[in-house]
Amino acid sequence: MRLTRRHFLKNASAAAIALGSLRSLQLQAQVYAQDPVYGIDKVGQLLADPAGILNLPRDFSYKIIARTGDRMSDGLITPSAMDGMAAFPVPGNASHCILVRNHELDSIGDEVDPFEGDLDKARKHVGNKGYDTFLLNRRPVNGGATTLLYSHRSQRVERSHLSLIGTARNCAGGATPWGSWLTCEETIAGKMHGYKREHGYIFEVPSLAKGLVDAVPLKDMGRFVHEAAAVDSTNGIIYLSEDYERSLFYRFIPKTPGKLVEGGRLQALVLRDWKKANTRNWPEDAADKNAQKVAMHQRFACEWIDLDEVTSPNGDLSERGEAKGAAIFARGEGLAFALRDDKTREVLFAATGGGPLKIGQVWRYQPSPFEGTAREAEQPGTMELLYETHNRAVLQACDNIAVAPWGDLIICEDSYSDSPDTINYLRGLTPDGKIYTLAMNAHPDKGEFCGACFSPDGTTLFVNIQRPGFTIAITGPWGNLRNQARGITKPS
How high is the pLDDT of residue 31? Predict the structure, then answer.
């Protein structure tokens, strides 16, 4: 849907009223605002969508390409709780791309499963490819992933199917340079919860797979409350986040890059001169001897420690890591790798509960030139607090993230509240820590944004709205943002 000048004027008037009362509302209202110090206006005012789905800047448009409950090509229906996602090229076919999309389901509560509640259909379709079933009725656990073939020309999904099943709470994940999706279980539930097997693992889904893949847990990557993964394309090292109030930041050094089933070594990050660092900036941590105030753009030299018993049934990996000196963060969630034009490497992640108001931080790790080798201590990697929000109207609950083609970070907000003023936005964050607003979820269900990713050709931003369940393709003048980042201006 394309947004017109009439809708722009209507929305601008409403925004002026809202912003005029922002000082008195302060944290009581989540009104779209600009950070007075670090805020920029990169795309202009958002325009009201007459369909009440998605407010976008002028000249941008969107299309819903998939919905929860849609019939897929394999005869199943699209499950609910769409979450993390990545886009992949189709070899030899630049007019199409492939999306692999998580579904954050665990067969508990009100869910839309791919089998429409039909146990016989589920057993027949899954066979022995699912990871886990319930002890009581041998029903496959609902969590997993779906795969979609998308045409840029028709802006339609041409094929879709269930690609992973039997896992639980597949939240985010990460794309690999070799063309697969790493899907992360955000739970350590197990037999005591009615499952046949223990959960808390990462699974790999090749993007070119035409049907269900064998669900093989990558156990050396650890058993914990996984959130996301990001692969350094220069060396194959994988960084991992953990959605827990005292979460660690992990890296996995594979024995053979690109062949994760062969195993590897799991490590946790330590701030070299601040062991057991509590980086959350929470007021109630003032009495914690390991806590200190972290300022924006403050940097710390880092080192890494090996972790043992990484699949412990006790689910205590992060606690043991912290006891050995690892730094803790407030709910590590979205994670992305960036290779800059000057070959600088960065790993960015969101700490959803960080900061004095517990509404979000964005951290940046810059790997060592000798990352993962014996020479790493000569020039250690550094960790930096790139951004911390102090206002719900500027940023709240930063979750899934993605690096845009022009280098900025696209941030999905995941704010859930019964408050009538709760709104979720897509935000942008520049490499130097300047923040702006890119889109607003205008749907009355107020679901979280998740799964933001760009098509391989950079023409389309895909994103999910988890509730009621949409996958959306956003197109527009993305090239203008690339030109801005490169200092190219349009001739007058």
Answer: 56
Cα–Cα distance, 303 to 298 (Å, whole number): 17
For 275, counting Cβ atoms within 10 Å of its Cβ (0-12 exposed, 13-18 middle, 19+ buried), the class is: middle
Q: Which of 316, 315, 310 is nearest to 220 (CA)?
A: 310
Q: Which amino acid is at 269?
A: L
b/e sequence 138-158, b meaning 16+ C-beta within 10 Å: ebbbbbbbbbbbbbbeeeebe
**Which residues are 346's β-sheet partners?**
338
Long-range Cβ pairs for the range 119-128 (8 Å, 24+): 125/74, 125/76, 125/162, 125/212, 126/165, 126/166, 126/212
Query: Which strands form 143-151's sheet, in the order they lie side by side?
Result: 82-90, 93-103, 143-151, 156-167
Q: Is 337 left (phi over 0), alpha (psi -120 to 50) or beta?
A: beta
266 Cβ contact partners less than 8 Å away, ≥ 6 residues apart: 220, 221, 222, 250, 251, 252, 306, 307, 310
Q: What is the pLDDT of residues 422-460, one digit of tens each?
A: 899 999 999 999 999 999 999 999 999 999 999 999 999
CA-wise closest residue to 146 among 475, 449, 451 = 451
Phi, psi (deg, nearest 5) at residue 211: -155, -160
Stated pTM of the model: 0.92
- H or E, element range at 121: helix 119-126
CB atoms within 10 A of CB 202: 27
**How far is 204 from 102, CA to CA, in rounded Å?**
12
Provide the 3-class DSSP secondary structure of residue 27.
helix
Q: Sort residue 487 into left (φ over 0), alpha (ψ -120 to 50) or beta.
A: left
Cα(471)–Cα(236) distance, rounded to whole angstroms? Answer: 29
Strand 449-454 vs strand 460-465: parallel, antiparallel, or unpaired?
A: antiparallel
For every residue of 296-332, DSSP letters joined together read TT-EEEEEEEE---TT-TT--HHHHHHHTT--BBS-E
* Alpha-carbon distances, residue 236 vs 184, 251, 314 (angstroms): 18, 11, 29
Whether the predicted pLDDT of 1 surpasses 70 = no
Q: Count CB atoms within 10 A of the CB of residue 1.
A: 15
pLDDT of residue 489: 57
Report residue 216: phi and psi, to 5°: -110, 115
Encoded tokens for 310: 């990484």
The torsion region of residue 297 among left (phi > 0), alpha (psi -120 to 50) and beta comes to: left
Q: Is 215 exposed, middle or buried (0-12, 13-18, 19+ CB in 10 A)?
A: buried
Residue 421, pLDDT above cutoff 80: no
Check residue 22 and give its pLDDT: 33
pLDDT tens, position by position, 387-404: 999 999 999 999 999 999
Q: Which residue is it, tokens 């990996």? A: 317
Could you tell me which residues are beta bridge partners of residue 472? 64, 463
